[in-house]
Amino acid sequence: EIVMTQSPATLSVSPGERATLSCRASQSVSGDLAWYQQKPGQAPRLLIYGASTRATGIPARFSGSGSGTEFTLTISSLQSEDFAVYYCQQYDNWPLTFGGGTKVEIK
Amino acid sequence: EVQLVESGGGVVQPGGSLRLSCETSGFSFGTYTISWVRQGPGKGPEWISLISSIGGTTYYADSVKGRFTMSRDNGKNSLSLQMNNLRTDDTALYYCARGHGDIYPNSRFFDYWGQGILVTVSS
User: Fold this and answer.
1) What is the pLDDT of residue A30?
2) Least CB-CB distance to A94: which of B59, B109, B116?
3) Which of A78, B14, B25, B38 is deepest in the core (most CB within 10 A)?
4) What is the mean pLDDT of chain A?
């Protein structure tokens, strides 16, 4: 099973600042990596797939990069609605696996 | 509007069974893979099963293999998850989630999710 490790567990950021979230895979997943955002009481929402492709309707301030085992989600200028938990998911191998999440909170 | 609505959750004793359903609308159901993803209290999501668009192929996580069975009815735009021999660590919010297509790799990540249904396994 591919283990996905996200860091940091919690990220404190002021509105308008940049946030950089990391996701590491225990073995290469090529570019088969998705990012999700989850707010309390809601289902996860797809942000990024293919490591860098924004899903429909996702603002341009969200960007993804990386390949192989190292991936990054960047939020260029945090808005109030962006404070949430973010998960990465690999879909290169079975079983499909998620990271433990990074909580982005208001500083 | 794409919608997925789960039902059938509840409280069950260890060793018991439960059947979850997912009713869908707003898209061509028979051309998408669907997965079940669960999320335990305070935990990240855990993928547990996937069914191909025509139902001929299923995949399961080791944690549920042999105990859970996923099926679909394309005529009714719905699917189900039969859960047997439930354990306390199956306690979670269960989501049905649509794959982003029917073909690898797009079928293996999820663009629409239901609101989730709670399953509690407790004596």
Assistant:
1) 96
2) B59
3) B38
4) 97
Instruction: Identify any residues that bridge with A66 across adjacent strands, giving them in sequence order.
Output: A71
Compare CB distances from A46 to B59, B61, B109 and report the shortest one's residue. Answer: B109
- Largest Cα separation within chain B, whole Å, is 41
Residue A84, token pair as written in the block: 């949430």
Say how far apart CA A94 and CA A26 lie, in whole Å.
13
φ, ψ at A21 (rounded to 5°): -115, 140
Are residues A43 and B62, on separate chains, in Cβ contact within 8 Å?
no
Tell me the DSSP string of B32-45.
S-EEEEEE-TT--E
DSSP string, chain B: --EEEEE--EEE-TT--EEEEEEEESS-GGGS-EEEEEE-TT--EEEEEEE-TTSS-EEE-TTTTTTEEEEEETTTTEEEEEE-S--GGG-EEEEEEEESSSSTTGGGSEEEE---EEEEE--
pLDDT above 90 (res B83): yes
| φ/ψ bin of B99: left (φ > 0), alpha (ψ from -120 to 50), beta (otherwise) | beta
Asked whether the beta carbons of residue A89 and residue B59 sit closer than 8 angstroms, the reply is no
The pLDDT value given to residue B55: 78
